[in-house]
Amino acid sequence: MKILVIQMKMIGDVLTSSILFEALRKEFPEAELHYMIYQNTFPVVQNNPNIDRIIMPEKDQSLRSLIKNAKNEGYYAVIDVYSNLRTALLTGLSGAKFRIAYSKKYTRPLCTHVFSRKIEAETSAGAAIEKRLRMLSPLSDNFPKEIKPKIYLKKEEVAQAKQLITDTGIDLSKNLYMIGALGSSPRKTYPLPYLAPLLDGIIEKTNANLLFNYIPSQKDDIEELYKLCQPETRNNIHLEIYGKSLREFLSLTYHCDGLIGNEGGSVNMAKALNIPTFAIFSPPLNKENWNIYEDGKRNISVHLRDYDSSIFKAKPEKQLKKDWERLYKAFKPEYITGELDKFLKINSK
C-alpha cells in the first residue's frame, strides 16, 4: 500500500504536515509513504524515519507528467494538504482510492473526501495540527488528535554546531538565545526600531549571548538592528555565528535556551527541536491558525489583538493586510515587555 502526502508550500507548513507520517507509520507499519514537497524545504524532513521517499518536482515539470507518475505509483491514498488548483488536479486524477483535500470549489468534484480548514482546537496542539490529522480520518478511526512535529538531527551535526559556538568563546553555561529578527517578508517582520529595545531588555535581565537567524543577503538589515541596540547589548551579540545552511541553523538552535522573534518557520522549527519559543505575530495574521503547543511557559506568543482588539473591529482580512505598516506601528514594545519578561524568567538558567 502506497500513500502520498502533498505539501508544496513553505518550510513551516512542510514541517507541520510531516506529523502525518508518524501517524500513518503507526497505523500502517508496512505502508510505503511518500512526501511531495519543494526542494528548499527538504532540510526540515531530512532523516525523518517515517518517510520512505521524498518527491521534489522540478520547477518546470508539467502537471501531466506529475499525474502520469502518480498513476504509475498506484497510490492507495493521496492526501493533498496544500489543496491549490494544480495539486487538486494531481490528486483528483491520480487514480487513488482515497483522494483527500481541503474543501474548495475545485476540490469537491475531484476528491473522495474534503475537509474545512476552519476548526476550533480541542487540544493544546492547536488548529494547525488538529486539522491536518483530521484529514487521515477516512483511512482509519485510530489516529490521534495531536502529534508534535519533530526534526531529526544527526549527532555529528549537533557536535559541529557546539564546536562552532565554543570556538567563538561563548560559554554555554550562560543563557544563549536565537533571535529571529527578520520574517519571511516585511509584512511579517516586527519593526527593527521596536525590536532593538526588546533585545536591550533581554541583555539587561539575563546577560545572555545572542545569535541571529539570517542569511548573507539579509546582513544589512541585521547590522542596522545591531546599531540600534545599546552598547552593552552589542557586546553580547555574535553576528559571526549564523547558520550557513538550514541544517546548520537547526543545529545551532539546538544549543539555545530559546528562540525569540517573528512568528514563522524558525519558530516552528525550534518547537520541533523542543526549544522554548517566544513568537511575535504579524498583526494581519490569525494567531489561532499557528500558535501550536502554546502553554504560556515554554511557548508564548503575542499579537496586537491581545492588547488592543478595537483596531481590528469590522476590518476584513484584505484590509488588515493592506494596513500592516500602520498596525505594526501600533504594536509598541511596551505591549510585549511583560510577556517577554515572563518567558525569560521561566526559560533562563
What does it look like?
This is Glycosyltransferase family 9 protein. It comes from Christiangramia lutea. InterPro entries: Glyco_trans_9, LPS_LOS_Heptosyltrfase. The protein has helices spanning 11-17, 19-27, 63-73, 85-92, 127-134, 155-167, 192-206, 219-228, 231-234, 246-254, 265-272, 317-322, 324-330, 333-346, and strands spanning 2-6, 32-36, 53-55, 77-80, 98-102, 113-115, 176-180, 209-212, 258-262, 277-280, 299-302. It has 349 residues and is an alpha/beta fold. The chain folds into two domains: 2-134, 3-Layer(aba) Sandwich (Rossmann fold); 155-346, 3-Layer(aba) Sandwich (Rossmann fold), CATH 3.40.50.2000. A six-stranded parallel beta sheet has the order 3-2-1-4-5-6, with helices on both faces. Strands 8-7-9-10-11 form a five-stranded parallel beta sheet, sandwiched between helices. Helix 1 runs parallel beside helix 11, helix 3 (63-73) packs parallel to helix 4 (85-92) and helix 7 (192-206) runs parallel beside helix 14. The model has no long low-confidence stretch (mean pLDDT 95).
| CATH architecture assignment of the largest domain | 3-Layer(aba) Sandwich
Structural category is alpha/beta
Sheet with the most strands? Answer: 6 strands, parallel
Radius of gyration: 21 Å
Can you tell me the overall shape?
A: globular
CATH superfamily of the largest domain: Glycogen Phosphorylase B
Q: What's the total count of β strands?
A: 11
What is CATH's topology name of the largest domain? Rossmann fold
